[in-house]
Amino acid sequence: MPDNAQLIRFHLNLSYEQYLAFYQGTIKTVMVKADDGRNISFPASNIKCYLTKYGIQGYFEMELTTQNKFVAIKRLD
């Protein structure tokens, strides 16, 4: 990770039905409250790889550049 990157951690608990709205294109962004209190939003496609038949649950870490451009996201638990 570059020194100037920022990491944002958050919990996410979306049911399969909730994510389906994202998948179908009805809703395009996910909004969550980060551990540091910030409200963040990002494209739902960034977490598509974590979708299971139960939805998307877990504790995640998102890496952004100093210009707030998406770099990566990973599940921590």
Main sheet: which strands, in order across?
1-4-5
What sort of overall outline do the alpha carbons produce when their principal axes are compared? Answer: globular
Number of E strands = 5
The string of secondary-structure elements, in order, is: EHEEEE
The main β sheet shows up as: 3 strands, antiparallel
CATH topology: OB fold (Dihydrolipoamide Acetyltransferase, E2P)
CATH class: Mainly Beta
Going by helix content, strand content and strand pairing, the class is mainly beta
Strand content: 35-45%
For the record, the CATH architecture stands as Beta Barrel
Describe this protein's structure.
The protein has 77 residues and is mostly beta strands. The chain has a single domain (6-75), classed as OB fold (Dihydrolipoamide Acetyltransferase, E2P). Helix content is 10%, strand content 44%. The chain is built from one helix and five strands; from the N terminus they run E-H-E-E-E-E. The chain has one helix at residues 16-23, and strands at 6-14, 29-33, 39-43, 56-64, 70-75. The strands form two sheets. The chain has a three-stranded antiparallel beta sheet. Strand 2 and strand 3 form a beta hairpin. The longest helix is centred in the N-terminal third of the chain and has 8 residues, at 16-23. It is globular. The chain starts with 5 loop residues before the first strand and ends with a strand. The model has no long low-confidence stretch (mean pLDDT 90).
